[in-house]
Amino acid sequence: MSERTGIFQGADPFEIARSWLAEATETEINDPNAMAMATVDADGMPNVRMVLLKDIEADAFVFYTNYESQKASELDSAGKAGFVLHWKSLRRQVRVRGLVEREEGPQADAYYHSRSLKSRLGAWASKQSRPLSSRTSLMAEVAKVTATHGTNPQRPPFWGGYRIKPLEIEFWADGAYRLHDRFQWRRENLSSDWVIQRLNP
């Protein structure tokens, strides 16, 4: 394997990802933590949508959503997902594939309570991914849950986090003449050691 230097250097891929995200926070205009997440439905048909990465833990990537949404149904059914973080300003990306588990404990409560009140009420009001007759009906539902749950709503039982534990992480940086630098970290299972290799662009 080629020696990894510069932005690719380090023994911990999660630390490298945190470092790249911190750099992107300084250069990206909007949502440096936006990631395109891919799932598959029961028929194997893929779905991709943007979600916001909220934490890079010691061994996982965490985001939050409605557990009754289509994405949650697909995550729960397959138990696997992939995502890519792409930063145009840095000309870099991180690709991840791995296993999924729910985060619906105190950590999910803490993140929910860190959100704005309108976002917390919106989580109660939205029946995510399901048909909606009009925006007016959605705003009426927001008013209804505001009256019901007040100014300090608890986390809905149908809303929480997911933790993606990678089996593969790829770090990619743009290179001259389309000769990009790519390093893949791969492991057979979550308790295995990482195998690192450089990939052709």
UniProtKB/TrEMBL annotation:
The reply to whether Flavoprotein figures as a keyword in the UniProt entry is: yes
User: EC no.?
Assistant: 1.4.3.5
Domain Pyridoxine 5'-phosphate oxidase dimerisation C-terminal stretches: 159-201
Q: Which reaction does it catalyse?
A: pyridoxine 5'-phosphate + O2 = pyridoxal 5'-phosphate + H2O2; pyridoxamine 5'-phosphate + O2 + H2O = pyridoxal 5'-phosphate + H2O2 + NH4(+)
Binding of FMN, residues = 49-54, 64-65, 71, 93, 128-129, 172, 182
- Give the Pyridoxamine 5'-phosphate oxidase N-terminal domain ranges: 22-147
The record's section on Pfam families has: PNP_phzG_C, PNPOx_N
Question: How, per the record, is the cofactor bound?
Answer: Binds 1 FMN per subunit.
UniProt keyword terms in alphabetical order: Flavoprotein, FMN, Oxidoreductase, Pyridoxine biosynthesis
Cofactor(s) essential for the protein = FMN
GO annotation terms (biological process): pyridoxine biosynthetic process
| Residues annotated as binding substrate | 54, 111, 115, 119, 178-180
Q: Which HAMAP family does this one have?
A: PdxH
The entry describes its oligomerization and partners as:
Homodimer.
What family does the entry list?
Answer: Belongs to the pyridoxamine 5'-phosphate oxidase family.
Q: What does this protein do?
A: Catalyzes the oxidation of either pyridoxine 5'-phosphate (PNP) or pyridoxamine 5'-phosphate (PMP) into pyridoxal 5'-phosphate (PLP).
- Its name, as the record gives it, is Pyridoxine/pyridoxamine 5'-phosphate oxidase
